[in-house]
Amino acid sequence: MKVAVAGKGGSGKTTIAGTLARILAQGEHSVLAIDADPNPNLAVNLGIDAETAARIESVPLSFTHHAKDADGNYSVGMDISPEEIVSRYGTPAPDGVTLLLVGRVEAHQAGAG
Amino acid sequence: MRGILEHLHSSDTLVTVTDMEAGLEHLKRGTLEHAETLLIVVEPYFKSLEAAGRIAELARGLGVPGLYAVANKVRSERDEAAIRDYCAGHDLPVVAVVPFDDDVAEAERLGQAVLDTAPAALAVDRVRALAGRLLANDLPQPMGRVAD
Question: What pTM was estimated for this model as a whole?
């Protein structure tokens, strides 16, 4: 199951996403919560304390490589499996949710991504 | 970032819940690739409804199979009716109605999860019902009923 939550800023999308992720995990599903917002705050809505949340490392974009096929179409490839990304960069959250940050814009890489 | 999201969404084994970037600019960068279900959180006021309509239009163009609205911060029947009317006109089934809830506002003030501060909150209850529908595959099928 792949669910994405969108909405205008301030709509409460992060609260809905965080609450939904934990409830799905309570049903014994192994849930990956992905924060794709450049200004990430899903951690807090998942119940991770602010101090831990501030230290979470975003998945580096350096795993991505761009390739061009015979027809000239570009594709994005990854040098690491999804499971490996989760085990390396995931942060445990309550109810067995794992949180992954993929969108944080770091000061030194603003404009990337 | 698109590559990473696409990659994670391509895994067969993972249940993922992705909190997308606010707004819709990112959709053009392919951030919804492989997402099966898009929940568009909408508040009962014009600009929020309009934004939801544009997000739905873009996502539909990208071929996301399941597009749904989640009504949030609903304070009255009028609020709910406004959201249902707009969404019905945009072929966007409303799959949950989450009331405005002081327990949520208080959790936000504290910087905590509402599930930890007020697990019995009505808003939590509505999200729980939505989770149940997702797990039971009990959402309106694409191109099916306009509203539920």
Answer: 0.88
